[in-house]
Amino acid sequence: MGQHLRRVKTRHIILAVMCLMYFISYIDRVNIAVAGPLIRHEMGLTTMELGLVFSAFAYPYAAMQIIGGWLSDKFGPKLVLTTLSLIWGAATLATGFAGSVIVLVMLRFVLGIGEGGAFPTATRAFTYWMPVGERGFAQGITHSFARLGGAVTPPVVLAVVVASGWRSAFILLGIASLAWTVLYLFVFTNSPEQNRRITPEETAEIGYRAGDCERAKRSATPWRKLIHRMWLVTFVDFCYGWLLWVYLTWLPSYLKESRGFDLKHLALFTALPLLAGVVGDTLGGVVSDRIFKLTGRLRFARCAVLVVGMGGSLAFLLPTISVADPLTAVWLLTGSFFFLEITNPVLWTLPLDIAGKYAGTAGGMMNTGFGLAGMVSPVAFGYLIEHTGGYGAPFAVSAGLLALGIVAALFIDTSRTVEADEERERQEGARTGGALAFLDAVPPVRIERHIFRRPLRWRR
């Protein structure tokens, strides 16, 4: 009995493997920013060429959101995520051998293809492995590992660069990604019924019904219903993503140019908000699940955390625009990012809540908002800095979008699910079929021309 109680649940092992994926993939994504100055010096790249290398990742990343999610719905997350991780692992490894800007751009483009579909596919992987009351925690802890990956990338990559050069950093990270793929193949299955380790008790806890996974693969994707149910979530994710991309791209420049921090303090104060985000991601998912368990109201559990998270982020962001003390500005930005990341696990949980077996496609739709924000936000932020001469106007625009996101979050309804729509249509079809069943017994009526009837002729 004691051994049985100490047994680690299969879904928690799978969750740990997925956390490792988020961690490694985020390092693979942002390591180019750390190695960028050395690559530029070695290859003699211009600023524009280096910018092209940086941006090559974003476009296939955005395009692959829906494609990757849809493929995982149709072919299962095991096959799709294995393929995607092989793609981005190989691209990372090959970057260590790149010799020209064209090759670098191509490899970053391929990396965007691999990583673009990874997070929607991972969301789909949780559909049959995480009960409703643990989905927020699962999304929170995985994205915490993603933020942790972003925070530790500079010291980890720089340590490797100092020891053996920037190429070694990419080679080692590529090998780590491919090693994770092997681990994933051994541990993950598309559903509990395919896993030899899981117990019937844990399957009951998850709420999985035998055959659900195979039935989902045969279901036609209800694009219209998914768009109708997910567009509002996508817009909220765009508002969230706008400010997140500001942190990921402009924070070091802001701290250096507007607040006057030197390079010694810059690394610390850039990492501080990201580390706060690690805590925020986990906390947001845990709090949302806890509210649901206490109240039984799923919509309230999700929307309350969205509103509090974005509202708190807005409350800390607004004083940053006018505060004079640089250190106070850092703490305000840290608080703003902490609350911003509270919303992230809830946003990623909503595709599971609303779309169910179509969570891969729905997650891709949702994260397309983040991808579009990644294309627009850094450029628009830079444009506003250049034309206003400061960071006040760009931060004000970001605050305005947060306010719009808060309003939109109030109208998200987790009770209006895609599967509920399908069930209602089936019931209506059954009622209609029963009401008109008597027509099947009526013989068909044939309308024929009488043999003695002559065709009508027009006379003058």
From TrEMBL:
InterPro entries, sorted: MFS (IPR011701), MFS_dom (IPR020846), MFS_Na/Anion_cotransporter (IPR050382), MFS_trans_sf (IPR036259), Sugar_P_transporter (IPR000849)
Domain (Major facilitator superfamily (MFS) profile): residue spans on this chain: 14-417
Main location: membrane
Heme in keyword set: no
Subcellular location: Cell membrane
Transmembrane segments: 12-32, 52-72, 84-111, 169-188, 226-248, 268-288, 300-323, 329-350, 362-385, 391-412
CDD domains: MFS_ExuT_GudP_like
Membrane topology label: Multi-pass membrane protein
Residues in coiled coil: none
PROSITE patterns assigned: MFS
Keyword presence, Ion transport: no
Source domain of life: Bacteria
GO molecular function: transmembrane transporter activity
Keywords of this entry: Cell membrane, Membrane, Transmembrane, Transmembrane helix
GO CC annotations on file: plasma membrane
Name used for this protein in its record: MFS transporter
Organism encoding this protein: Trinickia violacea
Lineage, highest ranks first: Bacteria, Pseudomonadati, Pseudomonadota, Betaproteobacteria, Burkholderiales
